[in-house]
Design goal:
six-stranded antiparallel β-sheet, 9 strands, binds zinc ion
Amino acid sequence: MTRRNWLTAAVALTGCGFRGAPVEQRSKAVEQSGTGRLTEAQWRELLSYAEYAVLREKGTEPAFSHPLNSEKRAGQYNCAGCQLPLFSSAAKFDSGTGWPSFWEPLPAPAVESEADSSMGITRTEVLCHRCGGHLGHVFDDGPPPTGLRYCINGTALRFVPHGGSQS
Ligand SMILES: [Zn+2]
């Protein structure tokens, strides 16, 4: 085994953890898949525990727990899994719910919606168009001009400030 292979193996073994794999590694895996629809084993390697729980197991982060809830800078919100651009800061508003909220997604292809009847109530689930990752839900009590409220887990997003690097 060459030194380079050793390093690659070490990264693969430690990939799943609190931070997950770096953005470049996620983008490469999505590119190689051709579709962004990776296997659950691949997602386990790439995503952090929290990201996996939200994106792949449809979990919900605690309200007011994610720093992106109070993010005010201009920029773009990408899918934390596959890096597809999903929302713009121009459509973000403070809903007071404790989750990042938007009144519209970026133009298609960005998000998909699907009826969700879990927890005894019917809601509309919002998913990433490319990787199918769970992002949150959309409700019809949002502000103008759409009247929609995309209630999104900050954990499912990666913020890219305008003119800056990803954070
Ligand atoms: Zn995605």
